[in-house]
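Notebook entry, structure prediction.
Reason for the run: the old model in the group folder had no record of what sequence produced it. Starting over properly, with the input documented here first.
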Amino acid sequence: MSDRIYNALFLCTGNSARSIMAEAILNLPLVGRGRFRAYSAGSHPTGKVNHHVIELLQKNRIPTDHLRSKSWSEFAAPEAPALDFVFTVCDNAAGEVCPIWPGQPVTAHWGIEDPAAVDAGEEETRKAFFAAYNQLHRRIAIFADLPLARLQGIALQSALNDIGKRD
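New structure, fully documented this time:
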C-alpha cells in the first residue's frame, strides 16, 4: 500500500454544515486511516460553523476546535496544498464556476440535502443534521476504502461518481 497522503477538499456554498462535517469525518483516524488530509470551504462562506454541526460532532467525540468556515479562494492560492480530490456536497456549489485548483484534482458531486434549510422544530432539525452526517459518513467510508493507488482515469472518476449516487 502506498504511503501517500491524499488531499481532499469538500465544497459547499456556506461552508457551515455539510462540507464541515465531511472534513471532520475524513480526518478521523478510523475513517481516513492517516491516508487523507481533508479540508472544507465555501463559495460564499457564512463565517461560522453551524451550532448543530458542532453539537453533533462533539456527541460523536469528533474534535471541533480546528473547524472554521472559510472561502474556497484559500485553496486556489499558490501556497495552498495541491489537491487530489474536490467534492461538492451541495447542488448550488456544484453549479458554480470553481477556481482553478492546484494539483489538477479529480472532482465529483456528492449532493446532500441541506440540513440547515430545514424549517421545522428543533427535533426535526437535529434529525436532518443526523441524516446528512450519516449519509456523508457512509460515502466517505466507501471513498476511504477505495484502492486509490490502483484506480486511475475513468475508473477512478466512475467510482467517485457512483459513491455520490448512494443514499
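Summary: The two ends are 29 Å apart (CA to CA).
The old model has been moved to the deprecated folder.
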